[in-house]
Every structure is written in structure tokens, then in C-alpha cells.
Amino acid sequence: MPQNSSFCVLRTFLWPLSSLLVFSSYSSRPLLLHRRKMASHVVGYPRMGPKRELKFALESFWDGKSSAADLQKVSQDLRCSIWKQMSDAGVKYIPSNTFSYYDQVLDATAMLGAVPQRYGWSGGEIGFDTYFSMARGNASVPAMEMTKWFDTNYHYIVPELAPDTKFTYASHKAVSEYKEAKALGIDTVPVLIGPVTYLLLSKPAKGVEKAFPLLSLLGNVLPVYKEVIAELKAAGASWVQFDEPTLVMDLDAHQLEAFTKAYSELESSFSGLNVLIETYFADVPSEAYKTITSLNGISGFGFDLVRGTKTLDLIKSSGFPIGKYLFAGVVDGRNIWANDLAASLNTLNDLEAVVGKDKLVVSTSCSLMHTAVDLVNETKLDAEIKSWLAFAAQKVVEVNALAKALAGHKDEAFFSANAAAQASRKSSPRVTNQEVQKAAAALKGSDHRRATDVSARLDAQQKKLNLPILPTTTIGSFPQTMDLRRVRREYKANKISEEEYVNAIKEEINKVVKLQEELDIDVLVHGEPERNDMVEYFGEQLSGFAFTVNGWVQSYGSRCVKPPIIYGDVSRPRPMTVFWSSMAQSMTSHPMKGMLTGPVTILNWSFVRNDQPRFETCYQIALAIKKEVEDLEAAGIQVIQIDEAALREGLPLRKSEQAFYLDWAVHSFRITNCGVKDTTQIHTHMCYSNFNDIIHSIIDMDADVITIENSRSDEKLLSVFREGVKYGAGIGPGVYDIHSPRIPSTEEIADRINKMLAVLESKILWVNPDCGLKTRKYTEVKPALTNMVSAAKLLREQLASAK
């Protein structure tokens, strides 16, 4: 990859912010920032670009339309723009190596040379072929497992490790990017996934006992970390940041001991180097706090003080190691609300009294990759709501405004504008709907369950639906073609009439229905051609939501989502899906699934208001979806899928907080469908998470059928049922991975179904892909679904002949 700074072309389409004037979201007046660097820090920054430049470059490269050099050029321009933006804004501790072509954990796997054998890597620097094969699979081998990054909607690639895994320094990306920034005159803080977190987030490779102690490999990975540290020091790095977010989890003594062992062994490598251990997403438990703050050779510790308010109390009550830096994460990296600067400054003043003026650094609570990029690009957003928001670029301004104020250079005008915006949000009449508040409050004392047992409901549904054994279905969406997106854009821009739009969508639905009939799928979907995103589509039709034009956030790889903003009380003014579902059902005699997104997923995949408890907002959404379910049933839709893909994602990281969350999350789902007839079949879907620890809550949701991602997880889900969990509802563990372009054979899918039949009764088993098909092409979807149906029919024949 070229390293010369001349490759860093600061194109105006990348960053509309000038080098000295950063526009505040609170005022149209430009805010002049001092060139003197303040004690400020950013944990990480979005890497897709403000207009998703990296997404389009990646997809062009994957499609063979552009070269590796083209991809590298776009990537370098983005990196350079980000570093220069933060430098010009006044950030003192600027992160590097937070850029990734796919995923930061996969980058760590590449750095450590921990490539599974099936990818045929023979050593040397890991290139794009091996890297993207691990992420996406290829024609010969499947991709590595993908799961959620803690409790976020970001997905990481799970490392696969074995006792004989050979670790070797195989990607010099961290050093290369540090040098790249330095060539621009910007001294950055290289960021590495910490060795303990890396191992704790890994899984035993296929064929290795699941009880294999991954931390036993700690001594094997540390030599590679030492090599990286040595190269960074030689390149001139003065700080290195180790991200160790697993420190916020409930760790046992052995796991905590691993941190002591790791950083004690690395300590000799730290000579002449400042080391920051960064945590985020929750409180750090007291034992973990004691463990890391007792480490020698560590210069500073970073804590999330937005989601970790108890950590703040811990610092005040337990003290802080003398002479160490506290990187105080007071600017929210997970949400898009403007910081309450006055409240944050009070917190920082309190902390300064504990740690000392020269040792306090103002920081973000976590990487800003979980927020949208730049509010400047939102030219169509409601002005009042816009004044309440701060995206990543604005959060950089907030961090520096707080650092300046802490240093005695408070920008009174900026703080006043911020206070006015905070007051506006609290008093705005558009935020509160008393009728909605009252209806949601009334839900708290009730159970909201369907009156009949699931086994009796399944019998009633089978009499009406008359489905074969091992019924086939898909999860909802079909490929979103360029033509389809163009039609939606033109309709939104008033370039085509409503009649033309309806006819175009109707034609697409008819095509999808006919295809499924040709493939002989049992329960059909309409393909969702009218939908931009499974959450945004519903939010656009509910009150209390606002939307952005360029508020994109990376979900995985090149996949980006544009989360709605829930700013007020939520209600459903009118039906949202009945028109399209009824139209689709009229085209076929097969059962047609009505497709809805569940309340917990809408909540967890939105930027949620932070002025009331999350469960109250969730109950409001549940009531809105309940009305839609009842209208679908009244319209004759016999199968209704209420996706809760994000239910597991929202599970708090600390066990002491999980029961409360699961109680209201499961209750919210049950609210949506508690009043339907026994003959109406309720499905739900979940994807890319570890469900084993919440299986009893999933059962308590009381859905008739649940479909769950399974193919990348080596059938981890099935181990729950092997271990004796009783499950009587229908279940469809995904039989192939839709996030890979690879097309599985009939035999491969049949083998997966057979593994399921070994632990699940045939009468409850469904056959379906892992997830929706919108990101795939029809050239991939048609043969994959053909093979899926063929595999189901093959197994039906075998089951019939075995009787």
C-alpha cells in the first residue's frame, strides 16, 4: 500500500469542515478552535466515510470493477481526512489503526497470523484474498463466524483458535498506518485489540473441544504483540492504546489474572512508551478496576462514564493511582444526542479533584464508529431536532470544548448555545404525548400472553395451513436491485407518481411470488421491495421518529444502516404493511407471511431518546406493532413474522442487570401478538448472536415458530437442545449463510438438516436461510434456494421411508 502523503487527497466531498473552522450543531456561527492541542482524546472514529465512500469502494472491488490500488487509494484518503480533521480540531490523542477494510477483530487475527487452515494461507503478509475470504467466504470454503460486538449492532468476525494455532506477525497494518499519519505531521495513538480481550472473544476451532481454555494461548500471542510494540516504538510512537472492553464483563479470578499476566509480561516492552488501557460499554466491576489500576507500566486508563456511571463512583470512592492518566469518557460514543456540556464539566471538575489537573483527559465513552459521521451533511433534517444532535464530527468539537473549559478557556457562547438546545429539547411539546404515556404505563402490571398453549396452537394452525413436514420458507427480504432502489428514490423525490410507484412495486412483488412458487417454497414472503431498511421503514410511519439522509453507521463489512432517531413518544397513526401484504396474498394460494419488525429490534436499532427509561419507549413501540398485527390478521394474513433480530443484542453486559432487561423485552414482544387467534401463526427471527444463555427467555416469548442464524456458528445453537432444553414450538435454525456469496450444495444443506434432526423433532423443524436475502444477487439466491428446497424434499423422502 502506498505510504507517501501525496496520496492523501483531501477531497471536498469527504469532509466539508475546514481545517480551522468547525461548525457547531448548536449555532450557525463557526467556532474558532485554538491551534494549541488540549488534553482531549477520541477512542475511535467511523471508517465508512460521510457518504459511505469505503462501502462503495469495497463493493466495487469485490465485484471486480476496480483494482486493489483503487480500494487502497479511497481508504487512504479517508484515513488522512479523519486524522487531519481531528488534528485541526485540536485533539491531542488521535487514534490510528481504527480504520479497517472489514472488521477490527479480523485485523487482529491477521496481525497475529491466526488464519484457519481452510483458507490455504502459506505465510507472509496477509493480503486481500485471504483477508476477505475469512470475512466473506469464497467458492470453496465458508466464512468465519460473525457475531455482535458486545451489545452493539456492529458485527465482528470471531477468531477460531486451537491448541496448535501458530501465531506469527503477519499484518503490519498498525505500524503502516501510524507511519502514514506521521508523514502528514500527525502523531497518533495506535490502537490494538488487547491480547486478553482477543482471546476471550475467540472460539475453539472446529474439531476442538468447546471447553478448550482459550486463555491458555496467552503466552503464544504475547510475542507477536511485543514485535508490534517494538516496531511502533521504532517508528516514533509515544502512546499505544490497548482496547480491553471485556474488562466490563463479569470475569472470574482466572480471567482477571490473565490481564495481570499479559501486561506484566509486556511491561518490559513498554519502556519509553506510554500505554493506555481502554474500556467501554459499561461499568468496570470493582475487582477488575483494582486489577488493572494495580498494573505496572501502564500510563493511563480509559473508562466509559456515560454507560458506566458506577465507575465514576468507584473512582471517587476507591481513588485513582497517583501519577496515572484518567481518560474520562464523558461524551457519548453510542448515541447522537448533544452532550450536556454543563453537566459533563461538573463531572470533570469532580474528577480533577481526584486525579489532578494534569492527569485528566477528556474523551469519548467509546469509539465514535457507533454514531453517524457528520451532522453538516443533514441539510433536510428538522431544524429544532437538529439542534439537539451531535454526530461524530460534532462530538470531536464537544470533547475539545470540554477540554478547553477544563483548562480555563471556556467558550461561553458555545456553552450557552448548548444550554439553549438542552432546554429546547426538554420543553418541546413534540416530545410528549400524554395519551401514549398513559397507555404504556398501563402495561406494566399485566402479563399479556396468548390464552392457549403453543402445542394446541400449532395443531390448529396445521389444520388450516396444511404444511408438509420440514416446511420451507425464507426470512423476508429478497434482493434489492439497482432498479428497485431507483424507483424508491424517484418516488421519494416526486419524480414519479404514486400510481407509477405502486405499479412498479406490485410488479416486483409478483416476480418474487412467482419465483417462490416455481421453487416450491411452502410459506412465501412478498420480498419487501417497498422497504429501505427493516427499522427505518417502520419508523417513517410512526410518530416520534426523525430521519437522516446520511446518518449511516457500519453494521459489518460494507453493510451500513441508517438508524432512525426516536426523539418523542411513539404511536402508529395508520396501518403500515397491510396494503402490500394483502396484495401479495392475493397473488398466491400459498400462505403469505406478513412481515413486521418487533419493538425490541426497532428500539435497539434506533438512536433512542435518553430522557426516559428504554423500556418505556419499547412498550410504546409494542403497542404500535400490536395494532398492525391485529390489522394484518383482520385482512386475512394467517402467518405473521415479528422479527426480533436484536433482542439478544440489547442484553446488558453485566449479569446483575440482565433479568430486568429480558423481562421487559420479552414482555414487549408478547404485547404485540397476545390477542390473535390460535390459527394465526406468529413467527419471529433472530440473527448473529449467542442465544444459548437466553434460551429460556426465547421460549418465554411464546412465538409459534422461531428462525435463528445457525450456519456460521457450527451449530452452537443445537447444543442447547442436546443438553436437554425442552422446546415445543416450531424452530428453523438457518441452513445456509446469506452473508457470503457462496452457494451451498443440496448435499451440504441436507447434512445440516440431518444434524438438526439428531436433536430436534421433525414435526417442529423448519428449513430456511440464516437471514433476509436483500444483500444478495438473484444469481446467488435462485440456486441457493433451489438447493435448499431440494434438500428439504430429500429429507422428507428419507423420513417417510424410515417409518
Automatic annotation (TrEMBL):
Gene3D superfamilies given in the database record: 3.20.20.210
Domain Cobalamin-independent methionine synthase MetE N-terminal positions: 40-354
Positions that bind L-methionine: 475-477, 528, 605, 643
Binding site for L-homocysteine: 475-477, 643
Cofactor note: Binds 2 Zn(2+) ions per subunit.
Active site residues per record: 739 (proton donor)
The family this protein is said to belong to: Belongs to the vitamin-B12 independent methionine synthase family.
Protein name according to UniProt: 5-methyltetrahydropteroyltriglutamate--homocysteine S-methyltransferase
Organism in which the protein naturally occurs: Elaeis guineensis var. tenera (Oil palm)
GN (gene name): LOC105042372
